[in-house]
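It is worth pausing here to work through a concrete case rather than discussing structure prediction in the abstract. The textbook approach is simple: state the sequence, then state the predicted structure, then interpret. We follow exactly that order.
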Amino acid sequence: MNRYGHLAMEHWARTDPARYATIEDPETFFADLGAQAEAQIQELADSLAGRDHPGEEYVAKVGRLNVARLRAEEAVLTDLVWIPGQEEDEAPATDWVTTTMRESHTALFEDEDEDLPKR
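Step two, the predicted structure:
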């Protein structure tokens, strides 16, 4: 089983245990799902990356290929791997991200404020 299969298996077991429990042979199911994800990611990444550019430097090419791969992974994993929980809706996830970002931002600036002279 490839890394996408493992990722899916762990996510499904954690996110929707009831759905996970209905899978008769999880090893085979997620091995197949992982292989399908890998094939789709590779095909989409190749398409997104496009052809080599004349005079493109090595670092620029590596960056272009990496970005294409990451964008392909995001798209394919969203379609095949990431499933909502049993009673999950979009709002709690959005609220969690917003709260986490706000806390991180606040903590970052609180640390910087300690170094600043008080007015």
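Step three, interpretation. Residues 3-87 form one domain. The two ends are 60 Å apart (CA to CA).
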